[in-house]
C-alpha cells in the first residue's frame, strides 16, 4: 500500500511537471495582461491566457483553459489512444485514486488518510484535471513566494493533429525570468481542442 501511495504522489508530480506556464508575446504582438473574460476565443488565446493565469496564480481562469473532456474517462481513453501524454497520466492517476477509494491509506486522523480524503473531495467535486491544476498553482505560489514571475510566450500552429475531432498541434516557447533575473527558455508542444465553438487545452508535452 505504501508503494502505491508513493506512486500516486509521483503521478501527481509528473502531471505538475507537464503543466507549464506574464507580459506575454506571440506573433510579435504584446498581449495585455488579464484578457481573461473570454480565455477560449482562439487556440493561441487559450494558451496565452492559461500561462498568464497560471503565473498570476488564478486557478479559476486556469481551469477554464482545459477541456472538460479531461474529466471524462472515456474521452481520456480516446486522447490516450491518440498519444496524448496528459491523458495517459490522468488515467494512471485515476487508477491509483480508485484503488485508494477501496483501500484508504491508514485510519481517520492519520496524515496520509486526511491528505487522501482532501484529494478525494476535490476530485469528486471538480474532476481529475482540476485537482492537478490546484496542486500546480499551490506549488508555484511556494516556489515564487506569491510573486508573479515575468514570462514571455510565443506560439506557432504546426498542423492539424486530428481534423475530424478538431484538434490542433502547436509549438510554444516559454521564456521565464526569475527574481534573480535569470532567464530560462523551454519549448513545449500543445494540443488544443475546439469544442462547442471554444478552444481548450487537451495536452501539453514535455
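Q: What amino acid sequence fits the structure above?
A:
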Amino acid at each position: 500500500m505504501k508503494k502505491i501511495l508513493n506512486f500516486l504522489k509521483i503521478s501527481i508530480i509528473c502531471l505538475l511537471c507537464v503543466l507549464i506556464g506574464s507580459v506575454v508575446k506571440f506573433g510579435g504582438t504584446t498581449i495585455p495582461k488579464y484578457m481573461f473574460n473570454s480565455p477560449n476565443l482562439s487556440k493561441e488565446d487559450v494558451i496565452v491566457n492559461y500561462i498568464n493565469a497560471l503565473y498570476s496564480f488564478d486557478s479559476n481562469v486556469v481551469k477554464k483553459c482545459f477541456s472538460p473532456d479531461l474529466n471524462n474517462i472515456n474521452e481520456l481513453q480516446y486522447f490516450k489512444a491518440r498519444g496524448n501524454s496528459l491523458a495517459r497520466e490522468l488515467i494512471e492517476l485515476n487508477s491509483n485514486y480508485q484503488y485508494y477509494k477501496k483501500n484508504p491509506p491508514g485510519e481517520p486522523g492519520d496524515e496520509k488518510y486526511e491528505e487522501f480524503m482532501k484529494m478525494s473531495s476535490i476530485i469528486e467535486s471538480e474532476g481529475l484535471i482540476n485537482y492537478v491544476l490546484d496542486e500546480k498553482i499551490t506549488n508555484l505560489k511556494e516556489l515564487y513566494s506569491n510573486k508573479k514571475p515575468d514570462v514571455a510566450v510565443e506560439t506557432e500552429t504546426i498542423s492539424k493533429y486530428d481534423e475530424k475531432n478538431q484538434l490542433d498541434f502547436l509549438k510554444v516557447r516559454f521564456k521565464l525570468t526569475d527574481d534573480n533575473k535569470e532567464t530560462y527558455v523551454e519549448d513545449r508542444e500543445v494540443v488544443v481542442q475546439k469544442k462547442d465553438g471554444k478552444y481548450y487545452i487537451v495536452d501539453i508535452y514535455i
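Q: And what stands out in the fold?
A: The longest helix spans residues 85-102.
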